[in-house]
Amino acid sequence: MIKEKKTVVVGVTGGIAVYKALDVISRLKKKNFEINVIMTESAAKFVTPLSFQSLSQNIVNSDMFAEPRAWEIQHISLAKKADLVLIVPATANIIGKVANGIADDLLSTTIMATKAPVIFAPAMNTNMYSNAIVQENIHKLVKFGYNFINPASGRLACGDEGEGKLADTESIAEYVESMLYDKKDLKGKKVLVTAGPTIAAIDPVRFITNRSSGRMGYAIAEEARDRGAEVLLISGTSKLKAPLGVKVVNVSTNEDMLREVLKHYVDQDIVVKAAAVADYKPKQYSDKKIKKANDDLNLELTKDNDILKKLGELKKEQILVGFAAESNDLIDNAQKKLENKNLDYIVANDITSSDTGFASEDNKVTILCRDGRNLPLEKMSKRQVARKLFDIISEK
Ligand code: CTP
């Protein structure tokens, strides 16, 4: 939730990943940020300022000694105007300059003069990135409160393999958005979220699982992060990308999830169990692959842990939120779960509709509160559901 239009000053430095900065800017524009680009001289050798001007819809700043408009001194005015400064891609050179107090062009002076948060998204050759000097510079900047979006590993433009590839542009844009979020009502709070399906193995190659994508839980984790919480996401086998700034623990079975949740439960302020946990597992796991034999194969199942029920029994000060996936009698069934599992809130979810629920982008839910309120919500994105949920929790 970002109220007014915020300004992001994007510093572009010279590396082969410069073209990716265009995509970051296009994503930030879609998120309704005002963009002011500063390009270094070498960045402008990779991609012309005109491309950045077209996408940012603003004049690109590059010449430190350009005629200042009226009383404004360019680097000071950009530094003041910025709600956030993002350097993408950030070369070893700009990192080294800032870490050592060198301000000799428009970008380095702006970074030095701003009071806004600064994010570096480095991209460089893997040997350069792992060079002890670069690492020490990064370490120093982190210590002074600068933020880094770590590069990914992979095949680099120079042909080398390793760390140094610019982080993916979607994650960079999301990280910027999260830092500029207005509502920081979960600051200082610890939030644990579970997401995705669990699996129960039948034999070494087969398992039972369900259709959960993990999207609802991941959206909750991202919303909590953006509102300032320290978030731990315990995720079943989801294909979704780990959200930046969230600690993710991957699990596969009901038992794994229970163990990880219990390990962290006492410290938490809010626990949201959005995972679709398997209720049953095969009674007997076969170490050998089950061979095809008779026409019928009977698989005997036995009940597995109800994780949320256990959390309800152990609950002290934590706010406990469950989900109820129902195909009929939505409110009655959800109400029963709220009581049986000793929850504070339950998000009741009708899974019969094809364009909401399990694997879809949207959801249509009713939030039931312990105090007896039932709050039906319109169909909305999972992120908006997450927002409403924390709005309701924070009202108290
Ligand atoms: N849950 C859990 N452990 C289970 C089953 C469910 O922790 N073994 C949690 C889910 O994460 C969710 C809530 O309990 O927050 C309700 O899950 P749901 O599947 O709707 O209900 P169940 O309790 O499994 O009951 P039923 O399947 O009979 O509807």
From TrEMBL:
This is Coenzyme A biosynthesis bifunctional protein CoaBC. Pathway: Cofactor biosynthesis; coenzyme A biosynthesis; CoA from (R)-pantothenate: step 2/5; Cofactor biosynthesis; coenzyme A biosynthesis; CoA from (R)-pantothenate: step 3/5. Gene3D superfamilies: CoaB-like (3.40.50.10300), Flavin prenyltransferase-like (3.40.50.1950). The keyword Oxidoreductase does not apply. It catalyses: N-[(R)-4-phosphopantothenoyl]-L-cysteine + H(+) = (R)-4'-phosphopantetheine + CO2; (R)-4'-phosphopantothenate + L-cysteine + CTP = N-[(R)-4-phosphopantothenoyl]-L-cysteine + CMP + diphosphate + H(+). Its EC number is 4.1.1.36, 6.3.2.5. In the N-terminal section; belongs to the HFCD (homo-oligomeric flavin containing Cys decarboxylase) superfamily. In the C-terminal section; belongs to the PPC synthetase family. Its cofactor is Mg(2+); FMN. NCBIfam families: coaBC_dfp. Catalyzes two sequential steps in the biosynthesis of coenzyme A. In the first step cysteine is conjugated to 4'-phosphopantothenate to form 4-phosphopantothenoylcysteine. In the second step the latter compound is decarboxylated to form 4'-phosphopantotheine. Catalyzes two steps in the biosynthesis of coenzyme A. In the first step cysteine is conjugated to 4'-phosphopantothenate to form 4-phosphopantothenoylcysteine, in the latter compound is decarboxylated to form 4'-phosphopantotheine. One of its GO terms (molecular function) is phosphopantothenate--cysteine ligase activity. CTP binds at residues 279, 289, 323, 337, 341. Binds 1 FMN per subunit.
